[in-house]
Amino acid sequence: MKRLVIAVAVLALAGCGGEAVVPVGQEAHGHGASSAAPPVPGASARFNDADVMFVQMMVDHLQLGISLSQVGLAKATSQQAKDLAGAIDVTQREELTMLKSWLKLWDKPEGDGASLHASHGGQPLLDDKVINETKEKSGAEFDMNFLNLMTGHQGAGVEMALAEKKDGQNPEATAYAERVVTSRQGQIEQMLKIISGP
Amino acid sequence: MKLMRKAALLMAAVPAIVLITPVGSASAHGYVSSPASRSAQCARGDISVDLCGQAKYEPQSAEGVKGKKNCSGDNGAFAPLDNDSLPWKVTNTGQTLSLTWTFTARHATRDYEYFIGNTRVGYFSGNNQQPNNPTTHTINLGGFSGRQKLYAIWNISDTVNAFYSCIDLNISGGGGTTPPPTTTTTTTPPKPTTSTTTPPPAGGGTWAANTSYAVGQTVTYSGSTYRCRQAHTSLTGWEPPNVAALWEKI
């Protein structure tokens, strides 16, 4: 019976659901320390698989959003839409830099968007083809296309962030997920009010 | 021996379970954005989150098995969408109505159906392809008039499910004998300069959400002063300390 428990425990540790801890503090100061209790890892070094997946998927999601916002910035006729595109562009670049630094800290790859989508059952809303088709539109038709695409894209971001809030563990990543929920909801509110009138 | 067999079974089962557990699903969907459907009104903040529930966060996820005539797909978290007594905004329309769907993921589509009561007033095949994004349909309201609830249904081809959206309408020109009016569309094109936001006082003031800020304007937030770096309409989640791209601390 004892052997069974150990076997299961080892498997559980080796599986995907285990908590990974990078002992950042230990690397810097703790080598050779004989203290019985391991040093408490830095907050950002404490993460689980949900955190990693969220951040990897957000990197791809932010990049697509930046591509679309640049098209909006260049072609939107509504000043509100143009301003929003500009603000989404710069804020998401800032977020992207932050998330990439987390993956580096965690020693995790950025992953590639297509395989991430495929392995999580998604039919991505945005790809280069959709973005290029949008570029072909003009005037009010362009604005409607751009705003509906961006509304949907940011809505997908809210879903990813809600999953992270539920399953994630890293304090910075879950706090960021909360900001994604509120900021994207605010953007969606603004966009829907341009789409269907105040 | 029996124990060993159990152990072997468990050992085989554990990694499989770990592999099939959905760590976080981003399996998203769609809703009618124009005219503002009930879901869209929740996302727009027209109806409070207390009344809307989950539809505020995921207007695209009122999903249920095909064949229903309701607004939630019988998805419990979205039950408020079925509540006719909430203060839903009503769209005035003639007999012809254009509707636009916003998608958060593009499922292969069997078709779209539009119903008033049990009468199907619109049908569009999806050819089992991914939909164009966005997708706009123009339907004829079949002589219906007055206050009506339109069911907009997106039937997915690779699952048993559909996505449900309801639009509250006040239809003119129906009743069979009355000729349709000449102005028939309710789709509001984007208005270049319309703003529902409040311009801040020129001398700064305290940062507030839903305010239009121009480059160079200053605000205070939590005792610090910030200068706007990028024109935008502020929102919760874009507080100055969180978005250095929008606000420079001075």
From TrEMBL, chain A:
Pfam name, any one: DUF305
Keyword NAD listed: no
Record has Amino-acid biosynthesis as a keyword: no
Domain DUF305: 51-193
Keywords of the record: Signal
Signal peptide per UniProt: 1-20
Gene3D superfamilies found in the cross-reference section: 1.20.1260.10
Transmembrane regions: none
PANTHER family cross-referenced by the UniProt entry: SLL0788 PROTEIN
The protein's name: Uncharacterized conserved protein, DUF305 family
Organism, scientific name: Lentzea albida
TrEMBL record, chain B:
Any GO MF annotation of the entry: carbohydrate binding
One GO-annotated biological process of the protein: carbohydrate metabolic process
Comp. bias (Low complexity): 183-197
Alphabetical list of SUPFAM superfamilies matching this protein: Carbohydrate binding domain, E set domains
Keyword Signal among record annotations: yes
Every Chitin-binding type-3 domain range: 204-250
GO CC list: extracellular region
Region (Disordered): 174-206
Hydrolase in keyword set: yes
Signal peptide coordinates: 1-28
Coiled coil region boundaries: none
Entry keywords, A to Z: Hydrolase, Signal
InterPro entries: CBM5/12, CBM_sf_5/12, Cellulose/chitin-bd_N, GlcNAc_Chitin_IntDeg, Ig_E-set
Cross-referenced PANTHER family: CHITIN-BINDING TYPE-4 DOMAIN-CONTAINING PROTEIN (PTHR34823:SF1), GLCNAC-BINDING PROTEIN A (PTHR34823)
Protein's name in the database: Chitin-binding protein
